[in-house]
Amino acid sequence: MAKRIDVGGLNAYYGGHKAIEDISMTVEPRSVTAFIGPSGCGKSTFLRTLNRMHEVTPGGRVEGKVLLDDEDLYGHGVDPVSVRRTIGMVFQRPNPFPTMSIYDNVAAGLRLNGRVRKSELDTIVEKSLKGANLWKEVKDRLNKPGAGLSGGQQQRLCIARAIAVEPQVLLMDEPCSALDPISTLAIEDLMGDLKERFTIVIVTHNMQQAARVSDRTAFFNLAGVGQPGKLVEIDETARIFSNPSVQATEDYISGRFG
Amino acid sequence: MSDVIVDRPTVSDSAPLPPAGLHRPRLPRWAPAVVAALAVAAGVGIGLGAGLSSRAQWGLIAAILFVAVMYAAAARVEGLRQAKDRLATSLVWVCFLLAVVPLVSLLWETIARGIKVLDGAFLSHSMAGVLTIQPGGGVYHAIIGTLEQVGIATAIAAPIGLLTAIYLVEYGRGRLAKVVTFFVDVMTGIPSIVAGLFILSLWIIMLDFSYSGFAGSMALAILMMPVVVRSTEEMLKLVPNELREASLALGVPKWRTILKVVLPTAIGGITTGLMLAIARIAGESAPIVLLVFGSQVINNDPFEGAQSSLPYYIYEQWANGNDASYDRAWAAALVLIAFVMILNLVARAIARWKAPKTGR
Ligand SMILES: Nc1ncnc2c1ncn2[C@@H]1O[C@H](COP(=O)(O)OP(=O)(O)OP(=O)(O)O)[C@@H](O)[C@H]1O
Ligand SMILES: [Mg+2]
């Protein structure tokens, strides 16, 4: 199920602007990897290159290799659509489909891909909502619009939607930045459960969160405004937070930055 | 911090601030209504007294009085800032009335004159065998013509327009998109008579087909297409990019994303735009005169032979120039307005029904 990701020499551009430069790292399967770093250093950009969402942005371009268990995502003849089915994504702002009910939102990935068997769908929707820790709150109003939920519930709905298609890797871009501590805790617990089955990558500005949920942490930085972002180091989370090998990492984590 | 707090009383002592508290003197709630009534009365009085014949002048006097008195009263009681607010509000109201007066008077006139001969027989009979100076006859052949011509025009223009808009918003990059946008802009400005002449020279003179409802439909489609493209484009642009990305990130192909996520989100606005475009071409008469020729009898076949249509019928009856035909022209105008009104209502109903839901 869960797969490992090997990135080698990755550059990403927005038109002529190079946003990230020469990133190489390994994301271990069945674990949570956290990306931290100052705003604008290219964490979201890098995350989006991992499931070929970067090229959706006009002018978006990627160089380098991303291997998913030895298969290059940017290789010749690779279909970005099947890449995105294998590597799911949760966005910073909850974005449920406004025309769809809660049920339809969760079922969207399967339905829109044309695999509809009603009884099976019911099971998957229930399982995904339970997986996202939302089932109890919405089980009586599955046919109500998804946009009528609170922000935190919407975010968990989006997580349910993402795990319903059974991806092998789940990318989360600041999934808790708009949430209260209780919803945040629910989502962090959820990540603990999900990593049994998925490989998880999470971008966060919250150091405590990175320390709590992740097994490995990657620190990104950029040399200056307009410069491309780079990977400074990636290591076991415990090591990054106690004894990082680069001074900049320690400065950033301890708040002595810039 | 503590400095600021200590400083504060001295600052407010020296500054000419209004008295403490949040209440300001306000004009009573009924003031605008009363001033408006007085202004209208004064306008009528001055108009009668000075012997001004045009009602428009009376109205103008009343409007100026209303704006001026409201401003003066507000400036006196409420202060200058509120007075400016009142001034803007009164101007908006006056402009609103200026816009509504012609609309209402037009509706009123059409209903008052059109209702006279509008009945079941009028709706279900043609002009076959009716002399133009005789009363009687009907509009059935024109209704059939309008429905068929507008229907065919929509069947041609709506899919092309929709697909063009989807191309421009979802796929269009670079040179081709710019060229398409340019031509759509140019097409928006084509006068209906020119569209008619274009089809006339192409379809009837060069290709040697005869007059038919279909020829008219093609000209109408030319007029309708850019309107559909424009309104659809605007609606698609309103769909947040996050929804597209959410769908793509689920591994949904782009075409399916457009079909299942983007279009349903925008469908309300798209339908409204479409209905307005239909309403617009339903009133076109120039291409019909050139291409459909006009007819007094029922012709159900839009592909063969002359037909009539509502705008053409109105024009024709008016040109006949006698009381019976004037009545018929007004009644047909009423039918046309009702047709457009129904389309608008349908569009609104669809927009409301399809709008993204947010309630719990
Ligand atoms: N759509 C875009 N078009 C052009 N440049 C972009 C676009 N999105 C991001 N960038 C640029 O790419 C660089 C990296 O942005 P990115 O969003 O990846 O940063 P980030 O690390 O996720 O920041 P944050 O923590 O604030 O989310 C920035 O310099 C940004 O200005
Ligand atoms: Mg970001």
UniProtKB/TrEMBL annotation, chain A:
Q: Which domain of life is it from?
A: Bacteria
* UniProt entry tagged with the keyword Translocase: yes
The record, for SMART domains, names:
AAA
Residues forming the ABC transporter domain are 5-247
**CDD domains hit by this protein:** ABC_PstB_phosphate_transporter (cd03260)
Instruction: Output one GO MF annotation.
Output: ATP binding
Extract the Pfam families matched here.
Answer: ABC_tran
Keyword Transport attached? yes
Q: List the keywords (alphabetical).
A: ATP-binding, Nucleotide-binding, Translocase, Transport
Question: What is the name of the protein in this document?
Answer: Phosphate ABC transporter ATP-binding protein
Organism this protein belongs to: Streptomyces varsoviensis
Q: What is the lineage of its organism?
A: Bacteria, Bacillati, Actinomycetota, Actinomycetes, Kitasatosporales
Name of the gene encoding the protein in the UniProt record: pstB
